[in-house]
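Morning!

This is the sequence you dropped in the shared folder:
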Amino acid sequence: MGFKKDFLWGGAVAANQVEGAWNVDGKGMSVDDVARFKPDVDVKDYRKNVAITSTDIQNAIADPSTADYPKRRGIDAYHHYQEDIRLFAEMGFKVFRFSIAWTRLYPTGEEEQPNQAGIKYYQNVIQELQKYHIEPLVTLSHYEMPLNLAVKYNGWADKRVIKYFTRFARTCFESFPDVKYWLTFNEIDSVTRHPFTSAGIVPDQSTNLLQNEYQALHNQFVASAMVTKLTHQLIPGSQVGCMLTKLTTYPATAKPEDVLAAFNKNTMNYYPADVQVKGEYPSLILNYFRRHNISLDVTDEERQILKENTVDFISFSYYMSMLTAADESGLEMTAGNTVVGGKNPYLPTTEWGWTVDPLGLRLSLLQLYDRYQKPLFVVENGMGTHDQLNSDGTVHDQYRIDYFKAHFQAMKEAVDDGVDLMGYTSWGPIDMVSASTSQMSKRYGFIYVDLDDYGHGSGKRYRKDSFQWYKHVIETNGEEL
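The structure's back. Tokens below.
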């Protein structure tokens, strides 16, 4: 059957990784403005790269430079968005996923009125997209909550943050009414893997970190449901999606205990989508809470809000699969997208230890569609690797083309199997600062940005070989790979 005629091809970025201009035009500090580049830490050691303490935060606040904090400078998309969108249009993008930095509109998160300069910036971005007939797909929260709310309230562990977020969301809906597609929280399940980045929780300020993580996740569920209702009220015809990290896990062996271990991990991965799609907590998760002495503060009103305001579609990131076992001590472990899991001996890995598994994407699409029977949207998928910019301005990245070709073929097969797939946005269409390691040298884009890990370089944009390849894929709606 192939992809539907109105399939949304495009790319995805996050404000904190591309915009830069961290203290320009009234912007406040976000949690990612204190994410430090750690060149002495192994890039495969995810936990050390994202670890942060109260002292780290205070040191970062006291340091006004961008030297050790690459997300403060990004790729300066704040001043280059017109050039970048023009390049996306040249590739034929139908959709562009980006996030709105909460701190551009509400610098501390607690202001009564929004910062008009921030609103104007995103209005300009959206107008530029409209000029090229590119649909905006906007993420409200993508790892960039106000630092003030993290320090003052321990982030989303405090219910008061719900009020501040819904105020921010209402401002977005009222200021950008032409946006049809919205996502609430990026990789909402990641709260339990990197609580500070995802939910503003400072681990060393938490007496019961596990309790705080799941309470924060619940508070985000409630906020997501509230703004889903608000979106539908303020923007008729709008569609709101949840966003999940699809962590497809295989049993290491056919041993029944390993199969059970894989089932348990996949169940935990699904449950944030279960709540947002079905409107209630699954009984298996409630039992998990009981076994781990997790007691959530949940009101009857909140249960009703969740039940009545489910999402319209399911979006997700897919980068890799992993193995697990009842006893993981015998497994070789490898890093991945915000997680560490068993390495699959049948699959290759990238330089950063991420498993490359195109068939896993087809399986993920089938699993999600079978479970939820709602439209799906792949909003993140890609491969971070080193690229070589040649003296003539070319970048030969056949390895990237091979990666995407295999994953697009897997998507086609899932669609032929009957999956309702809305669209696909690559991560990311242009090189940007890495979310986990804060590197520029971990490159994803079809567009090369001449900057290194320390911010040195011209910042000039160059088309890679994959640029023209992806352009042709879009022109043929995925028929010619």
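Headline: The chain has a mean pLDDT of 96.

More detail when I'm at my desk.
O.
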